[in-house]
Amino acid sequence: MSESPMTCEEILEHLFAYLDRELDSQTAAEIERHLDGCRGCFSRAEFERKLQARVRAAGQSGAPESLRARLKYLMERF
Amino acid sequence: VDVGIRQRFAVEIERLADRLFGTALRLTRNRGDAEELVAEAVAKAWATCSELRDPHRFEAWIQRILANTFVSAWRHRRASPEIALEPDEAGDQESRPFSLFERLHQPFLLWWSNPEESVMAKLLGEDIERALDGLPDAYRIAVVLVDVQGHSYQEAAELLGVPVGTVRSRLARARGLLQRALWQHAREAGLLDRDHQGGEADE
Protein backbone atom coordinates (compact mmCIF):
# COMPACT_ATOMS: atom_id res chain seq x y z
CA MET A 1 0.00 0.00 0.00
CA SER A 2 1.02 3.63 -0.26
CA GLU A 3 2.99 5.20 2.57
CA SER A 4 0.42 7.88 3.40
CA PRO A 5 -2.53 6.71 5.52
CA MET A 6 -5.59 5.57 3.63
CA THR A 7 -8.46 8.01 3.26
CA CYS A 8 -12.06 7.14 4.17
CA GLU A 9 -12.78 6.77 0.47
CA GLU A 10 -9.97 4.24 0.08
CA ILE A 11 -11.13 2.37 3.16
CA LEU A 12 -14.63 2.01 1.68
CA GLU A 13 -13.13 0.85 -1.60
CA HIS A 14 -11.41 -2.02 0.22
CA LEU A 15 -14.09 -2.63 2.82
CA PHE A 16 -15.69 -5.75 1.34
CA ALA A 17 -12.34 -7.33 0.51
CA TYR A 18 -11.39 -6.62 4.14
CA LEU A 19 -14.60 -8.18 5.50
CA ASP A 20 -14.10 -11.15 3.15
CA ARG A 21 -10.54 -11.58 4.50
CA GLU A 22 -9.15 -11.17 1.02
CA LEU A 23 -6.53 -8.52 1.83
CA ASP A 24 -2.88 -8.97 2.71
CA SER A 25 -2.17 -8.66 6.43
CA GLN A 26 -0.53 -5.24 6.12
CA THR A 27 -3.51 -3.64 4.35
CA ALA A 28 -5.95 -5.37 6.70
CA ALA A 29 -4.02 -4.00 9.70
CA GLU A 30 -4.09 -0.51 8.22
CA ILE A 31 -7.86 -0.72 7.75
CA GLU A 32 -8.28 -1.93 11.32
CA ARG A 33 -6.28 1.02 12.60
CA HIS A 34 -8.44 3.38 10.57
CA LEU A 35 -11.66 1.77 11.81
CA ASP A 36 -10.44 2.11 15.40
CA GLY A 37 -10.21 5.86 14.98
CA CYS A 38 -12.96 6.73 12.49
CA ARG A 39 -16.51 6.53 13.73
CA GLY A 40 -18.08 6.92 10.28
CA CYS A 41 -16.11 4.11 8.66
CA PHE A 42 -16.49 1.94 11.76
CA SER A 43 -20.30 2.28 11.64
CA ARG A 44 -20.30 1.45 7.95
CA ALA A 45 -18.07 -1.59 8.47
CA GLU A 46 -20.25 -2.85 11.33
CA PHE A 47 -23.37 -2.45 9.22
CA GLU A 48 -21.88 -4.40 6.32
CA ARG A 49 -20.60 -7.06 8.71
CA LYS A 50 -24.05 -7.51 10.23
CA LEU A 51 -25.69 -7.65 6.82
CA GLN A 52 -23.20 -10.30 5.70
CA ALA A 53 -24.05 -12.33 8.80
CA ARG A 54 -27.74 -12.08 7.89
CA VAL A 55 -26.99 -13.24 4.34
CA ARG A 56 -24.94 -16.13 5.71
CA ALA A 57 -27.88 -17.07 7.94
CA ALA A 58 -30.04 -17.36 4.81
CA GLY A 59 -28.04 -20.50 4.07
CA GLN A 60 -29.60 -22.21 7.07
CA SER A 61 -33.05 -23.68 6.59
CA GLY A 62 -34.75 -26.56 8.37
CA ALA A 63 -34.13 -29.67 6.28
CA PRO A 64 -37.49 -31.36 5.63
CA GLU A 65 -38.14 -34.77 7.15
CA SER A 66 -38.34 -36.24 3.66
CA LEU A 67 -34.73 -35.22 3.04
CA ARG A 68 -33.51 -36.48 6.41
CA ALA A 69 -35.20 -39.82 5.76
CA ARG A 70 -33.72 -39.97 2.28
CA LEU A 71 -30.22 -39.25 3.55
CA LYS A 72 -30.59 -41.86 6.26
CA TYR A 73 -31.70 -44.43 3.70
CA LEU A 74 -28.82 -43.44 1.44
CA MET A 75 -26.22 -43.71 4.17
CA GLU A 76 -27.48 -47.09 5.35
CA ARG A 77 -26.59 -48.39 1.92
CA PHE A 78 -23.07 -46.97 1.79
CA VAL B 1 -16.40 -50.14 4.85
CA ASP B 2 -14.97 -49.04 8.21
CA VAL B 3 -17.98 -48.71 10.54
CA GLY B 4 -16.31 -45.81 12.39
CA ILE B 5 -15.89 -43.80 9.21
CA ARG B 6 -19.47 -44.46 8.19
CA GLN B 7 -20.75 -43.39 11.60
CA ARG B 8 -18.69 -40.20 11.66
CA PHE B 9 -19.88 -39.38 8.16
CA ALA B 10 -23.52 -39.91 9.16
CA VAL B 11 -23.13 -37.76 12.28
CA GLU B 12 -21.62 -34.92 10.25
CA ILE B 13 -24.37 -35.10 7.63
CA GLU B 14 -27.03 -35.09 10.33
CA ARG B 15 -25.37 -32.07 11.97
CA LEU B 16 -25.06 -30.16 8.68
CA ALA B 17 -28.41 -31.11 7.12
CA ASP B 18 -30.07 -27.72 7.78
CA ARG B 19 -27.05 -25.83 6.51
CA LEU B 20 -26.72 -27.96 3.37
CA PHE B 21 -30.42 -27.75 2.63
CA GLY B 22 -30.47 -23.98 3.22
CA THR B 23 -27.53 -23.44 0.91
CA ALA B 24 -29.05 -25.71 -1.73
CA LEU B 25 -32.32 -23.82 -1.42
CA ARG B 26 -30.59 -20.48 -2.04
CA LEU B 27 -28.84 -21.97 -5.08
CA THR B 28 -31.84 -23.74 -6.64
CA ARG B 29 -34.69 -21.55 -5.26
CA ASN B 30 -36.84 -24.66 -5.20
CA ARG B 31 -37.35 -27.08 -2.30
CA GLY B 32 -37.61 -30.21 -4.44
CA ASP B 33 -34.48 -29.33 -6.43
CA ALA B 34 -32.69 -28.45 -3.19
CA GLU B 35 -33.43 -31.91 -1.77
CA GLU B 36 -32.13 -33.52 -4.97
CA LEU B 37 -28.99 -31.43 -4.85
CA VAL B 38 -28.23 -32.29 -1.20
CA ALA B 39 -28.81 -36.01 -1.80
CA GLU B 40 -26.54 -35.97 -4.85
CA ALA B 41 -23.82 -34.04 -3.02
CA VAL B 42 -23.95 -36.43 -0.05
CA ALA B 43 -23.63 -39.45 -2.35
CA LYS B 44 -20.66 -37.84 -4.13
CA ALA B 45 -19.08 -36.90 -0.83
CA TRP B 46 -19.29 -40.47 0.40
CA ALA B 47 -17.79 -41.77 -2.86
CA THR B 48 -14.79 -39.45 -2.47
CA CYS B 49 -14.58 -39.56 1.31
CA SER B 50 -11.03 -40.89 1.24
CA GLU B 51 -9.91 -37.60 -0.38
CA LEU B 52 -10.80 -35.62 2.73
CA ARG B 53 -7.45 -35.16 4.46
CA ASP B 54 -8.54 -33.00 7.40
CA PRO B 55 -11.79 -34.10 9.10
CA HIS B 56 -12.08 -30.62 10.65
CA ARG B 57 -12.65 -29.28 7.15
CA PHE B 58 -15.67 -31.54 6.58
CA GLU B 59 -18.19 -28.71 6.18
CA ALA B 60 -16.02 -26.69 3.77
CA TRP B 61 -15.31 -29.88 1.82
CA ILE B 62 -18.94 -30.97 1.43
CA GLN B 63 -20.11 -27.41 0.72
CA ARG B 64 -17.62 -27.35 -2.11
CA ILE B 65 -18.98 -30.63 -3.47
CA LEU B 66 -22.52 -29.25 -3.24
CA ALA B 67 -21.55 -26.04 -5.07
CA ASN B 68 -19.66 -27.97 -7.69
CA THR B 69 -22.60 -30.31 -8.28
CA PHE B 70 -24.95 -27.37 -8.68
CA VAL B 71 -22.69 -25.31 -10.94
CA SER B 72 -21.95 -28.30 -13.22
CA ALA B 73 -25.64 -29.08 -13.66
CA TRP B 74 -26.49 -25.41 -14.10
CA ARG B 75 -23.92 -24.93 -16.82
CA HIS B 76 -24.95 -28.17 -18.49
CA ARG B 77 -28.55 -26.99 -18.77
CA ARG B 78 -27.51 -24.07 -20.91
CA ALA B 79 -26.81 -24.34 -24.62
CA SER B 80 -24.12 -21.65 -24.49
CA PRO B 81 -22.83 -21.86 -20.97
CA GLU B 82 -20.21 -19.11 -21.19
CA ILE B 83 -22.67 -16.63 -22.62
CA ALA B 84 -25.43 -17.62 -20.24
CA LEU B 85 -23.11 -17.41 -17.26
CA GLU B 86 -22.41 -13.79 -17.97
CA PRO B 87 -25.09 -11.50 -16.64
CA ASP B 88 -26.45 -8.95 -19.03
CA GLU B 89 -24.33 -6.00 -18.08
CA ALA B 90 -25.28 -3.73 -20.95
CA GLY B 91 -27.54 -0.97 -19.72
CA ASP B 92 -27.73 -2.68 -16.37
CA GLN B 93 -28.78 0.44 -14.50
CA GLU B 94 -29.88 -1.39 -11.42
CA SER B 95 -26.47 -2.90 -10.73
CA ARG B 96 -24.75 0.44 -10.25
CA PRO B 97 -23.14 0.78 -6.84
CA PHE B 98 -25.81 1.10 -4.18
CA SER B 99 -25.34 1.38 -0.46
CA LEU B 100 -28.18 0.68 1.94
CA PHE B 101 -26.12 2.25 4.72
CA GLU B 102 -25.80 5.51 2.80
CA ARG B 103 -29.53 5.55 2.04
CA LEU B 104 -30.27 5.13 5.72
CA HIS B 105 -28.08 8.11 6.48
CA GLN B 106 -30.17 10.60 4.58
CA PRO B 107 -30.99 13.69 6.63
CA PHE B 108 -34.70 12.90 6.95
CA LEU B 109 -33.87 9.67 8.79
CA LEU B 110 -31.20 11.03 11.06
CA TRP B 111 -33.57 12.01 13.84
CA TRP B 112 -33.30 8.33 14.67
CA SER B 113 -30.27 7.63 16.77
CA ASN B 114 -29.35 4.62 14.68
CA PRO B 115 -31.48 4.22 11.56
CA GLU B 116 -29.28 1.44 10.19
CA GLU B 117 -29.52 -0.63 13.36
CA SER B 118 -33.24 -0.12 13.52
CA VAL B 119 -33.85 -1.21 9.94
CA MET B 120 -31.42 -4.13 10.25
CA ALA B 121 -33.35 -5.39 13.28
CA LYS B 122 -36.67 -5.03 11.47
CA LEU B 123 -35.58 -6.98 8.42
CA LEU B 124 -36.79 -10.56 8.67
CA GLY B 125 -34.86 -13.60 7.55
CA GLU B 126 -37.40 -14.09 4.80
CA ASP B 127 -36.81 -10.53 3.55
CA ILE B 128 -33.13 -11.32 3.09
CA GLU B 129 -33.98 -14.67 1.46
CA ARG B 130 -36.40 -13.02 -0.96
CA ALA B 131 -33.84 -10.37 -1.91
CA LEU B 132 -31.21 -13.06 -2.48
CA ASP B 133 -33.56 -15.23 -4.52
CA GLY B 134 -34.40 -12.23 -6.69
CA LEU B 135 -30.82 -11.79 -7.88
CA PRO B 136 -29.89 -12.90 -11.42
CA ASP B 137 -28.30 -16.39 -11.38
CA ALA B 138 -24.65 -15.42 -11.85
CA TYR B 139 -24.83 -12.79 -9.11
CA ARG B 140 -26.80 -14.97 -6.71
CA ILE B 141 -24.39 -17.86 -7.11
CA ALA B 142 -21.39 -15.60 -6.40
CA VAL B 143 -23.01 -14.39 -3.17
CA VAL B 144 -23.95 -17.91 -2.10
CA LEU B 145 -20.43 -19.24 -2.75
CA VAL B 146 -18.68 -16.43 -0.87
CA ASP B 147 -21.10 -15.04 1.72
CA VAL B 148 -23.18 -18.12 2.49
CA GLN B 149 -20.68 -20.94 2.01
CA GLY B 150 -17.59 -18.97 2.98
CA HIS B 151 -15.43 -19.75 -0.05
CA SER B 152 -12.55 -17.41 -0.87
CA TYR B 153 -12.69 -15.43 -4.12
CA GLN B 154 -10.10 -17.82 -5.57
CA GLU B 155 -12.13 -20.90 -4.60
CA ALA B 156 -15.30 -19.36 -6.04
CA ALA B 157 -13.44 -18.53 -9.26
CA GLU B 158 -12.23 -22.12 -9.57
CA LEU B 159 -15.71 -23.50 -8.92
CA LEU B 160 -17.21 -21.24 -11.56
CA GLY B 161 -14.35 -21.47 -14.04
CA VAL B 162 -13.97 -17.69 -14.26
CA PRO B 163 -11.16 -15.27 -13.33
CA VAL B 164 -10.99 -13.95 -9.76
CA GLY B 165 -11.71 -10.45 -11.04
CA THR B 166 -15.04 -11.69 -12.41
CA VAL B 167 -15.99 -13.07 -9.00
CA ARG B 168 -15.04 -9.74 -7.43
CA SER B 169 -17.13 -7.71 -9.87
CA ARG B 170 -20.13 -10.06 -9.66
CA LEU B 171 -20.02 -9.86 -5.89
CA ALA B 172 -19.91 -6.07 -5.96
CA ARG B 173 -22.87 -5.94 -8.33
CA ALA B 174 -24.74 -8.60 -6.40
CA ARG B 175 -24.33 -6.73 -3.13
CA GLY B 176 -25.49 -3.51 -4.75
CA LEU B 177 -28.60 -5.21 -6.13
CA LEU B 178 -29.27 -6.97 -2.84
CA GLN B 179 -29.03 -3.74 -0.87
CA ARG B 180 -31.21 -1.94 -3.41
CA ALA B 181 -33.87 -4.66 -3.04
CA LEU B 182 -33.71 -4.40 0.76
CA TRP B 183 -34.01 -0.62 0.58
CA GLN B 184 -37.08 -0.91 -1.64
CA HIS B 185 -38.57 -3.46 0.71
CA ALA B 186 -37.81 -1.26 3.74
CA ARG B 187 -39.67 1.63 2.10
CA GLU B 188 -42.63 -0.43 0.91
CA ALA B 189 -43.05 -2.31 4.19
CA GLY B 190 -42.84 0.89 6.22
CA LEU B 191 -39.67 -0.13 8.04
CA LEU B 192 -38.51 3.48 7.85
CA ASP B 193 -41.53 4.71 9.79
CA ARG B 194 -40.83 5.68 13.34
CA ASP B 195 -43.94 3.95 14.67
CA HIS B 196 -43.37 0.71 12.78
CA GLN B 197 -44.04 -2.18 15.16
CA GLY B 198 -42.48 -4.98 13.17
CA GLY B 199 -39.18 -5.23 14.97
CA GLU B 200 -37.30 -4.87 18.19
CA ALA B 201 -35.10 -1.93 17.25
CA ASP B 202 -36.43 1.50 18.25
CA GLU B 203 -34.28 1.99 21.30
Layout: helices, strands, pairs:
The complex is a heterodimer of chains A (78) and B (203).
Chain A: H1 8-19, H2 25-37, H3 39-57, H4 65-76
Helix pairs in contact in A: 1-2, 1-3, 2-3
Chain B: H1 3-28, H2 31-47, H3 58-76, H4 81-85, H5 100-104, H6 115-122, H7 125-133, H8 137-148, H9 153-160, H10 164-188
- Report the mean per-residue pLDDT of chain B as an integer: 85
Structure class of chain A:
mainly alpha
What percentage of residues of chain A falls in helices of 4 or more residues?
A: over 70%
Assembly type: heterodimer
Poorly predicted runs of chain B are: 197-203
Low-confidence stretches of chain A: none
SS element count, helices of chain B: 10
Biggest interface and residues each: A-B, 32 and 46 residues
Determine the number of helices of chain A (DSSP H or I, runs of at least 4 residues): 4
**Main beta sheet strand tally, sense and closure of chain A:** none
Task: Describe the sheet with the most strands of chain B.
Answer: none
Q: Work out the number of β strands of chain A.
A: 0
The number of distinct β-strands of chain B equals 0
Write out key terms for the chains shown.
heterodimer; A: 0% strand; elongated
Protein model, in words:
The complex is a heterodimer of chains A (78) and B (203). Chain A contains 4 helices and no strands. With 78 residues, chain A is mostly helical. The model of chain A has no long low-confidence stretch (mean pLDDT 93). In chain B, α1 (3-28) crosses α3 (58-76) and α2 crosses α3 (58-76). In chain B, 35% of the residues are buried. Mean pLDDT of chain B is 85; it is low at 197-203. At the A-B interface, α3 and α4 of A face α1, α2, α7, α8 and α10 of B.
Question: Care to give the gist of this entry?
Answer:
The complex is a heterodimer of chains A (78) and B (203). Chain A has 78 residues and is an all-alpha fold. Chain A is built from four helices and no strands.
